[in-house]
Predict the structure.
Amino acid sequence: MATRNYKPTTPARRGMAKADTSAITAKKPKKSLTAAKKKNSGRNNTGKITTRHQGGGVTQRYRKIDFRLKDGHKAKVESIEYDPNRSAYVALIRTDSEEYAYILAGSKMKVGDKIEIGEDAPIKPGNRLPLGSIPMGSSIYNIELTIGKGGQLVRSAGARAQLTSKEGDWAFVRLPSGEVRLIHQNCYATLGSVGNEQHQNVKIGSAGRNRRKGKRPSVRGKAMNPADHPMGGGEGLSGPGRLPRTPSGKIAIGRKTRRRKRGNELIIRKRSKKRR
């Protein structure tokens, strides 16, 4: 699947590219599996803006994704759909008990494919098995961290992890960031990789396209006055002269934001600093 470019009728169109949506087979979602999505425009319960550059955008409905799936079930893919709430496409499946659910669409998943869930499921892309039943070296996604909680890791478009080895009750999983993490072998994961791999090649191109996504314009701090921003002022295009700061004065780059009070001992190797 490749990206689609536009004719350069305007400067914005020249640098614009969108994903090829030929894999999508349904225009509207299944209404019973959607929910209303309220927008707060980055404001808290008192109306104060706590997250800047948010507001407006096209009305969206949230798709209820089943990240858990019941063990022992078989299902058939009914359609591949676009989800405005995530980078990956979603697949509408119908289980053998005639129930419908949304799951993350895997790479090369298409209408009519059969998927199975359980430790006895065949080793085939799209099937969901516990890590203990998956062969070493396999590509996996939608991985559980806590037994029975549902997939939490590797869920964005084109992402995949690798099951490198097993030792005792634990499996060694290399995540897309390069981090190697211990996960219990009874945790479930889906074989294959997440679909919509060309999402990384999409170029927004125009400001209006970002506004329809709910993103408001952003002004550089160094372009403001000293009274408006910690990095404001100076002669010409002068740099900040110190670590970049937020409008409230907090460090914007280089400050650790990840909390690892629990589960730190399960991380075997930290993620690589080199961008992948």
Observations:
- Residues 207-212 form the longest helix (6 residues).
- The two ends are 21 Å apart (CA to CA).
- Helices lie at 11-14, 207-212.
- The CA atoms of residues 108 and 123 lie 16 Å apart.
